[in-house]
Design a protein that fits this description.
Length: about 120
């Protein structure tokens, strides 16, 4: 759930749409192991940039492509790049679930290597 002040700034129709999306995500068992909507998750985490998802994907791919061995990448590697594109990243340990959710969603929907890396980070 977003902060109450962000929620109450929505119009009535926006609140209805937000509640509907949240209910659908709940029904689909949205969580870190089964990410359903990255856009909804980012908004709930405080992201206001509509381009955040694209920026984060580009940052994630830059980390992978610039790595000698992508399977050895850790959460901190992604944290450094993600922090460059969004002020919402404030601490690599605090942002663990956020980073895993993002990578897992990208892995399920764009490129499988990121899903594998998210799984590896569960041990991290």
């Amino acid at each position: 759930m977003p902060s109450p002040e962000r929620y109450y700034k929505m119009t009535d129709n926006e609140q209805i749409l937000f509640n509907s999306l949240s209910e659908i995500a709940l029904k689909l068992n949205d969580d870190n192991r089964n990410p359903v909507s990255l856009s909804l998750f980012l908004w709930e985490m405080g992201f206001d940039d509509p381009d955040a998802k694209d920026k984060l994907f580009k940052a994630a791919m830059a980390v992978v492509l610039n790595s000698d061995n992508p399977l050895e990448l850790r959460r901190q590697d992604f944290y450094r790049e993600f922090a460059k594109v969004s002020d919402e990243f404030t601490d690599p340990d605090k942002d663990k679930i956020l980073i895993q959710y993002i990578l897992r969603w990208f892995g399920l929907n764009y490129t499988p290597i990121l899903y594998t890396l998210a799984d590896n980070m569960l041990k991290d």
